[in-house]
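Hello support,

Our group uses your service weekly, and this is the first time we've seen a run hang past the timeout. The protein is Thioesterase. I'm not sure whether the cause is the sequence or the server load. Input pasted verbatim:
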Amino acid sequence: MTTTDGVPGWFPGGPPRPTAGVRLFCLPYAGGGASAYHDWPEALGPEVDVVPLQPPGRGERRDEPPHRDMARLVADAAEALAPRLDGTPYVLFGHSMGALVAYELACRLRELGTTAPEQLIVSSHRAPQARWPGYTDDTVSETQAAEMLRLFAGPSPDAPGPAGPVRPLLISDLTLCARYHHHDHDPLTMPLTALGGARDPLVPPATLAAWRVHTTGPFRRRLLPGGHFPLRDRLAPVRELLRTARPAQPAGRPPGEPRPATAAGGTRGPHRHHAARRTRPAEEHDRAGGER
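Update from on-call engineer: The timeout came from a worker crash unrelated to the input. Re-ran successfully.
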């Protein structure tokens, strides 16, 4: 979808579907774009409005320079996303680099006083406070990017395969991750789920537990069979999580009508920012491959 002046925008999938029960905003992995989620609408069904975000440098925005600074990327994404928060329950999802962006985006939206997401789902990325191993400076070389491709262990529709050339976009995205430094945000309050592959060489399963400090709400770590892309052809865990993000319709309100806006942090009415208490959240662990 292009903006009113004909410039490709953040939402190539078109306008929102107001009749969906929940809206799923998806952030892509390094080197990828919105097309990584092209088959999710059919897989998740009509109750879920899948809305991939398209950052600069990919897809219809390939002629725009990609961001190499997380703060700028998140600020631009939040500015684009905020007008789409119309009261429909929504979830933020990000895979790999997209998980880090989704987390920072949730924090930024809270700062702006927008409606809070029902859930944050992060997939295949270490917690924000953990530096990726192997990054010794703020610029990723082509050799380092090629090694990351090898560890990705498999082609995908929107990323170069291990045998192909290293695209400049991938190097830019990995450089963004290398330059990222976590700021000590107050914990979020919504449920947070960290998904990961049981055989992921980039994000060992034990590292996912470190995400739990970033919410005072329920935390779940879920392990799936596979490596760095455990959700490929396996979206049942996401479908299950989204079922809990659809609040029951209050009596007297027709299905599909947006619920009253909720200020970030879960309080009704005008937004007020209070530092969340750093309490240990409820936590669940699922074994690899377990469907409940």
